[in-house]
TrEMBL record:
Subcellular location: Cell membrane
Membrane topology: Multi-pass membrane protein
Residues spanning the membrane: 21-41, 61-80, 122-144, 201-222
GO terms (BP aspect): respiratory electron transport chain
Domain of life of the organism encoding this protein: Bacteria
Assigned GO CC terms: plasma membrane
Pfam families reported for this sequence: Ni_hydr_CYTB
Name the record gives this protein: Cytochrome b
Length: 249
């Protein structure tokens, strides 16, 4: 139910609590993951010891668990959340999206902002890309964590792969060759290699995408002045005119 504010602005409920919690947990997780990841990539230059590198990678995985679980909840929420949090309001697909995209592009040409309660057509492209990149990082990160520091959910499987025998599996520790079969270890590292490469490439793409996302938010906030940033705290946006994507049934 929308709520009247003063004489000119109308308040519209948009982001539910689950979406808002996801957003800020995701922000904090990514900041922590980037900070630890950069430290790992520059561990030699920083003079980090082997034990320190293991600790950094272990904490990278711990934060990665928070990141991955939070993302999984959000992806599940796209099926059961409110209408602005669902796939239909995110993916840049369908006839309604094409119509809204046309309206949005015309507004840019004319220099007359139009309001969207949910993501505008350009933001839907960005959010879809972000979901793809975040999911890729979560999956590849869990595999790398299993091969590097043998942490769940894949760590035990990789230990079993590289162990000399079932009896030596318990002896295997990060950065130690005790109980490790050299040929199997090499096979495992070859298997790991493309996951690591994808993880690093997507890291740079994701970093650039996040910067573009922030710039897009700032631009939209200044251009439309609908409370885009505050909506991620309150769940509500404000508009002078009815948003293009608001159709109360």
């Amino acid at each position: 139910m929308k709520k009247q504010m003063a004489r000119t602005l109308t308040e519209y409920p948009v982001w539910d609590r689950t979406v808002r919690w996801f957003h800020w947990i995701n922000v904090l997780s990514i900041i922590a993951l980037i900070a630890i990841g950069v430290a790992i990539m520059n561990s030699k230059a920083l003079g980090v010891t082997t034990e320190g590198k293991i600790l950094l990678k272990t904490w990278h995985v711990y934060v990665g668990y928070v990141f991955a679980i939070n993302l999984a909840i959000r992806l599940f929420w796209t099926f059961i959340g409110n209408r602005f949090s669902r796939w239909a309001a995110i993916l840049p697909l369908g006839q309604k999206y094409k119509q809204q995209r046309q309206v949005y592009l015309e507004s840019l040409k004319q220099g007359k902002p139009v309001g969207f309660a949910g993501h505008n057509p350009l933001a839907r492209l960005m959010v879809t890309l972000l979901f793809i990149l975040l999911t890729t990082q979560a999956v590849t990160g869990l595999v790398i964590g299993g091969t590097d520091v043998y942490m769940p959910p894949f760590g035990d499987s990789f230990k079993a792969w590289i162990a000399e025998s079932p009896q030596t599996e318990a002896l295997i520790q990060p950065y130690s060759k005790e109980g490790v079969d050299e040929a199997s270890y090499k096979q495992m590292r070859d298997f790991r290699s493309p996951f690591k490469e994808i993880h690093e490439i997507v890291f740079w793409i994701l970093s650039l995408t996040i910067i573009l996302h922030i710039l897009g938010v700032v631009y939209s906030e200044l251009r439309e002045r609908n409370g885009l940033v505050s909506a991620m705290f309150t769940g509500k946006k404000v508009f002078k005119d009815t948003p293009v994507d608001w159709d109360e049934d």
